[in-house]
Write a structure and sequence with these properties.
Layout lengths: L1 E4 L5 H14 L8 H4 L4 H9 L3 E8 L2 E10 L8 E9 L8 H15 L4 E7 L3 H9 L3 E12 L2 E11 L4
Parallel strand pairs: 4-5
Antiparallel strand pairs: 1-2, 2-3, 3-4, 5-7, 6-7
Helix pairs in contact: 1-3
């Protein structure tokens, strides 16, 4: 397994894995497969090349099998924090530490960037994701009821945070 930052050159693999994630686990993401499949490849290139977003991928050989992103705040009062987004590991790769390795790479980068706070949401009932985030040091600060709706069914989201004190 190889973990590395993704670049615009990784857009084809990233787009394929992202669409797979949105298709397989629609309740886990705020984005939808139906909306994202209409976006051109250039949208993925732009996302991976943004100065305000950073994404990591987990590779087995040349195949992208896992991903996670960090969306940094741009407003002056919020620049000390960032949002963890788009965490996904292909089901055939789970149980191998790929999710933990992706989170470690993201958190290490956030610390090096002098970020002070990371936030994320996890859909209530996704116990594997919740355990991963808790092992990474995240703590819950509230449940948002009916945060997303998928096929008419509402799902609550658990809001979590990780403080990265200045060194």
């Amino acid at each position: 397994m190889n973990i590395r930052r993704l670049s615009p050159d990784d857009a084809p693999g990233y787009r394929t894995l992202r669409l797979r994630a949105l298709w397989e686990l629609p309740q886990a993401f705020t984005s939808s497969y139906e909306e994202d499949e209409k976006l051109p490849l250039e949208a993925s290139e732009k996302r991976l090349g943004s100065h305000h977003n950073r994404f990591w991928g987990a590779f087995e050989g040349d195949e992208l099998c896992g991903m996670v992103g960090l969306e940094c705040e741009t407003r002056a009062k919020n620049r000390h924090k960032a949002k963890v987004v788009g965490m996904y590991v292909a089901h055939e790769q789970t149980g191998r530490g790929m999710g933990g390795a992706l989170m470690k790479a993201l958190i290490d980068d956030a610390r090096a960037s002098r970020l002070e706070l990371l936030v994320l949401t996890v859909t209530e009932g996704d116990s594997a994701a919740l355990r991963l985030y808790q092992r990474s040091g995240f703590r819950s600060f509230g449940i948002e009821p009916r945060a997303i709706k998928v096929d008419g069914h509402a799902y609550p989201k658990n809001h979590m945070y990780l403080e990265l004190p200045p060194s």
